[in-house]
């Protein structure tokens, strides 16, 4: 594509050196991935300064560079006169605006729904994708479980665990639009908001599920974390807000556009309230109170918090113009994401539940819900995540202690850490770490096998936390891993 950099609109270009026009066929922020005719964005990261790799990118064929460092731009523009150099105030911001324009603003051609919150983003994005598609607005989704069109999973190589970098994001929007989808529900992490990955997008709907401490290794303070999440609502035309959450209640006061609020509290002031939640066969039934009317609803999901997540999808559909009777009818066919309260039946009538819960709050609520199901003994596996916040690990142990018959402690994604150090950190949260029903394992595979081994007739085996992209991240490498495969193999071998 021929680009005249003088005609591109981004708000922070300080100067342009070199040719104004170039033929561009690739965007990248990683010099190792630069190829002929690429645009390279020099990002200052936690470990490297992208400015150090500009020459590397040029050697590999980059013909335009976005950079913030004036001295570097001066020197390199002189050395590489065939290359275009754009000096900008904020490379990440420029990357977001440039990517949007490069792909012809695909975010404006489809409805965009952004989901933020400590717990529930993946679940809500999947519910919104499913509900909108059932209502006739074919919708994709973007997040931890991958990139999905309205009909299938699309095998992208992901640049990040949850919210893609801007240049991937706009390509995905374009691909979804080209596939005929009319909407996309995407997880928007606090880190993505901080790193301006969604800058320049005006969301049709922004959803807030809840907030509790998370990612403090990145944001350092809870206040920074909260402020990052709030940014999503400064770029949204409509909002869906959980008022059972403190940040949600504050948002309701500050957010001035159209909004739908939701709650599980019969006494709350909210547009959507679910009461009388009851397990019913393969799902949950409840009464939905909305503006003086009461509706009977059945939805094939488990867990009170998942009913709250369903309310956020209902709110989104209402804001996008659908009517309540149509929505309620469609909810009976709602699809859930994999690994979120995913139930597998074992051969001796054990119930194995795979659930991605990995924050102390999510673990507590998950165990509350699981205990409502009929069972003999409860076996719970918890995993410290090496690439996440170490401070939350002991709190995960506290959330489980005294609530399960057997506890297996293991590791997810050790990263560059020694697995036993991560296990020690989780163990430090138990009042009695030497109790005979608490077991240590150093890999997720061992943890799953130990849990299955301890399970018997009518037991529930709850395997928490999980994989990113079907893999365990070990020393920077993705090692393929699937709990489901291990479960299948275990029962096959022992039968
Ligand atoms: C911790 C963190 O914020 N990491 C992000 C950060 O990387 P970094 O600061 O380590 O980058 P760096 O290694 O210092 O390098 C700086 C720049 O130099 C470039 N470089 C480096 C070396 C080289 O040879 N050539 C080169 O061009 C790098 O490509 C990069 O652009 O900047 C990169 C470029 O923007 C991001 O892709 C990267 O996300 C990584 C992949 C990541 O794992 N992020 C996680 C923490 C994340 O974003 N998580 C959230 C939430 C997940 C959840 O749901 O809980 C998410 O949305 O995924
Ligand atoms: N609304 C909710 N409130 C509390 N806990 C929830 C809620 N929704 C889901 N959970 C719990 O949190 C776990 C993770 O859910 P989900 O993957 O949807 O969250 P997430 O925000 O996408 O997390 P991540 O970004 O780490 O993937 C679920 O498996 C469940 O145990």
From TrEMBL:
Its cofactor is Mg(2+). SUPFAM superfamilies: MurD-like peptide ligases, catalytic domain, MurD-like peptide ligases, peptide-binding domain, MurE/MurF N-terminal domain. One of its GO terms (cellular component) is cytoplasm. Residues 26-75 form the Mur ligase N-terminal catalytic domain. The keyword Cytoplasm applies. Residues 339-465 form the Mur ligase C-terminal domain. This is UDP-N-acetylmuramyl-tripeptide synthetase. It comes from Guptibacillus hwajinpoensis.
């Amino acid at each position: 594509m021929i680009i005249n950099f003088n005609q591109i609109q981004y708000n922070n270009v300080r100067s342009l050196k070199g040719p104004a026009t170039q033929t561009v066929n690739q965007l990248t922020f990683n010099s190792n991935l630069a190829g002929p005719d690429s645009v390279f964005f020099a990002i200052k990261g936690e470990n490297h300064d992208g400015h150090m790799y500009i020459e590397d990118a040029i050697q590999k064929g980059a013909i335009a560079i976005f950079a913030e460092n004036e001295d570097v731009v001066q020197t390199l523009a002189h050395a590489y006169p065939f290359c275009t150099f754009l000096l900008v105030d904020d490379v990440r911001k420029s990357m977001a605006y440039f990517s949007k324009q490069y792909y012809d603003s695909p975010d404006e051609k489809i409805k965009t729904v952004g989901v933020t919150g400590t717990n529930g983003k993946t679940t809500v994005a999947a519910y919104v994708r499913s509900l909108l598609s059932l209502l006739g607005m074919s919708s994709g989704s973007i997040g931890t479980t991958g990139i999905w069109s309205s009909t299938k999973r699309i095998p992208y190589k992901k640049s990040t665990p949850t919210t893609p970098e801007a240049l991937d994001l706009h390509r995905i929007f374009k691909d979804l639009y080209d596939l005929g989808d009319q909407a996309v529900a995407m997880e928007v992490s606090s880190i993505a908001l901080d790193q301006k990955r969604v800058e320049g997008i005006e969301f049709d709907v922004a959803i807030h599920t809840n907030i509790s401490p998370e990612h403090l290794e990145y944001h350092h303070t809870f206040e920074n974390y909260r402020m990052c999440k709030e940014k999503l609502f400064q770029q949204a035309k409509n909002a869906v807000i959980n008022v059972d959450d403190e940040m949600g209640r504050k948002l309701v006061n500050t957010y001035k556009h159209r909004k739908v609020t939701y709650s599980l509290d019969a006494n709350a002031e909210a547009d959507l309230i679910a009461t009388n939640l009851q397990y019913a066969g393969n799902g949950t039934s409840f009464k939905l109170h909305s503006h003086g009317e009461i509706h009977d609803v059945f939805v094939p999901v488990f867990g009170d918090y998942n009913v709250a997540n369903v309310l956020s999808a209902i709110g989104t559909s209402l804001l996008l113009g659908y009517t309540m009777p149509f929505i309620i009818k469609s909810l009976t066919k709602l699809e859930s994401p994999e690994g979120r309260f995913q139930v597998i039946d074992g051969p001796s009538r054990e119930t194995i539940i795979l659930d991605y819960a990995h924050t102390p709050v999510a673990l507590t609520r998950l165990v509350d819900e699981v205990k409502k199901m009929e069972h003999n003994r409860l076996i719970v596996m918890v995993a410290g995540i090496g690439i996440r916040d170490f401070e939350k690990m002991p709190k995960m142990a506290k959330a489980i202690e005294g609530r399960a018959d057997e506890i297996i402690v293991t590791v997810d994604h050790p990263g560059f850490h020694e697995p036993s150090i991560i296990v020690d950190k989780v163990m430090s949260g138990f009042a009695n770490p030497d109790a005979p029903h608490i077991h240590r394992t150093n890999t997720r595979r061992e943890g799953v096998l130990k849990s299955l081994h301890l399970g018997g007739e009518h037991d529930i085996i709850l395997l928490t936390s999980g994989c990113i992209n079907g893999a365990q991240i070990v020393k920077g490498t993705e090692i393929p891993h699937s709990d489901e495969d291990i479960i299948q193999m275990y029962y096959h071998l022992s039968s």
